[in-house]
Amino acid sequence: MTKAYLIGQVTVHNPEGYQKYAQHVPATLVPHGGKYLVRGGKDTQLEGQAQGLRKVVIEFPSRAAAEAWYHGPDTRPSCRIDWPIQRGTLFWSMGLTAKIQLPPP
Asked: At the N or C end, where does the chain have fewer CB atoms within 10 A?
């Protein structure tokens, strides 16, 4: 099964509201097999224009699981990117379906 990744770049505008949001979201991931790979932390913009100051990457076991989480009744009302506490971008990316052979170092 091909893994799916939710990738977000957001800027938080309401830190108190964001704390409530940040406490709520992890429990919504569990039933769908989701887990954080990146959640905030220090990053360095290498090229282009960042779409938000905070980065997040959530891994799901499949696209179906990811979409069930995103559209679920416990998730959708609280995880909107366009609500007053944060603004930015979200997108799905699918994992590799085949192994890539890299040349030896």
From this structure: C
